[in-house]
Every structure is written in structure tokens, then in C-alpha cells.
Amino acid sequence: MSAMISGEIGSKCQTRNTSDIEVYIAARTEEGLSANSVNAELRVIRRVVKLAQRDGFIVNPKLRITMLSGSVRKRKFSVQEETQILGFLAADGGESSTKARELFVFLLDTGVRLNEALHCEWSDFDLDGRTFEVHRSKTSSISSLGLTRRVHSMLSTKTNQPMPFFEMDRAVKCLRMAIDTVCNTPSHAKIIARDGRAVIHSCRDTFATRLISAGLTLYEGSKLLGHSSQHMTAKYSHLESRDVATRAASLLER
């Protein structure tokens, strides 16, 4: 409640803008919450606003709290967008941008949720064996992941710090800004209308899309993503179906 309403003189207060709601939704989505879970929280916030209005608080008349669509969106990064985001962060050269760049690569190549990356510890890694065990707080499970060469190389230079990703608040903000600058421009209007705005969680969709497009099964994908059931991975089923269709056409031509 306090995050959405700021205190003013006396017992009156002013609700924040719709953009604050959008930032909140993006943050909760990046943490791995489903649309249904986010909508449940939005209903609570909407109820608080109505109660504030009833009790005489000053409410921003332009505030809009829109429920998330039930449709499943899969906003992924293209190879070109990945290159542009990495280039944008590299051009800055600052410490926060460097950390943001490393985080972006890690998220793309492991498919973990943002909070899973930020809370991982060195004990979760076997750098010699190039593996990583991620503790899924959302599903109370553990997933074993392999480390790509670029992730392994990056982590190997950071072992002198307390955690793989340490003091990351500014870096996360830098990464969000880079993604917005590269991917959420008017020129991307059609993509945004179809798949939604690009956010940090899009790294997870990119990871899944690339692997399943390369031949990984939905079952294998669900294990790597830490889904509690294969049903949660079903939004990528069209990729597997496309591969089956291609192989079927090839068989018929023999």
C-alpha cells in the first residue's frame, strides 16, 4: 500500500501515476510471477485505491490499473537486439553498465529468473565442471544447468567477490534502460502489440525459444526452466510442432 500511495499534508495523500503501476507489473513479471498472480495483487491495489477514495484521500484521477491479458506472450530478443543491448552497455564503460552486461549474458545463457540470478552463491557453482545448480524458490526445486563458455569465462574473473552478482541495484536499472532504449521504441510497435514490451524476463523466453528451436523437447525445456509441470512450458509448443511439421514433410518427400 505504501509503495503506491505517498503521504502529503495532514491525513491526505496523492496516488502515484499509471507508469508506477506498469513498473510494478514489469518487476513482478521479471520475478517469475504468472499473469494470474500479478492480477491478484493488482486487484488488492485497486481495492486499496477505492478505499482511499471512499475515505476522502486525494486520488490521481488519471490512475489506471489494467489487469494483464490472459493471452500468453513470448517476447524474445533477436540476435540483432542482443548485440545492440550488449553494445549499448559496453559503450558506457561504467561499473554499473559492465555489471549489467554480465548479468544480461548470464540470464540469456541460463534462462534463470532475475531474482534467482541475484541470489545465487558461489557454492551453487562447479566452475571446473562448468555446471550450476539453481534453487527455484517459486517451485521449491533445484535445476542443474550447464555454463556456456562466455558465462564460465565471465564468472571465473569474479571469484574474489562475495557473490557472483554483488551490489546489483544500479546494474539492474542500467539493464532495464538498455532494453527499453533498444527494444521498446516506436519502430517496434508491431512486435510490442503482438508479444508485449521487452523486459529482463524476456531473457528467459529467449533462452527457451532458442533451445526448443534447436531441437530440445518441451519436457527437457521444462526441466531447464524449473517449471513445476510441462504444462507451463506449453507456450513454446508451436516451436516443437514446427520442427515436427518440417520433419514430416521431409519424410513424405522420400
Which secondary structure elements does this structure contain, and how are they paired or packed?
Elements: E1 5-7, E2 13-15, H1 18-30, H2 35-54, H3 79-92, H4 95-110, H5 114-118, E3 125-126, E4 131-136, E5 141-146, H6 149-156, H7 169-183, H8 189-195, H9 202-213, H10 218-225, H11 237-252
Antiparallel strand pairs: 1-2, 3-4, 4-5
According to CATH, what is the class of the largest domain? Mainly Alpha
Given helix and strand content, the structural type is mainly alpha
* Tally of domains: 2
* CATH architecture tag of the largest domain: Orthogonal Bundle
Mean pLDDT over the residues:
79
Shape: globular
Q: What share of the residues lie within helices?
A: 40-55%
Q: Which ranges are low-confidence, i.e. pLDDT below 50, for 5 or more consecutive residues?
A: 1-15
Please state how the strands of the largest beta sheet are arranged side by side. 3-4-5
Estimated share of beta-strand residues:
5-15%
The number of helical segments is: 11
Secondary-structure element sequence? EEHHHHHEEEHHHHHH
Any idea what the radius of gyration is?
21 Å
Q: CATH superfamily of the largest domain, please?
A: Intergrase catalytic core
What's the N-to-C terminus distance?
65 Å
Largest sheet: 3 strands, antiparallel
Oligomer: single chain
**CATH domain fold name of the largest domain:** hpI Integrase, Chain A
Tally of extended strands?
A: 5
Pfam family, one: Phage_integrase
InterPro entries: DNA_brk_join_enz (IPR011010), Integrase-like_cat_sf (IPR013762), Integrase_catalytic (IPR002104), Tyrosine_recombinase_XerCD (IPR050090)
Keywords: DNA integration, DNA recombination
Protein name: Tyr recombinase domain-containing protein
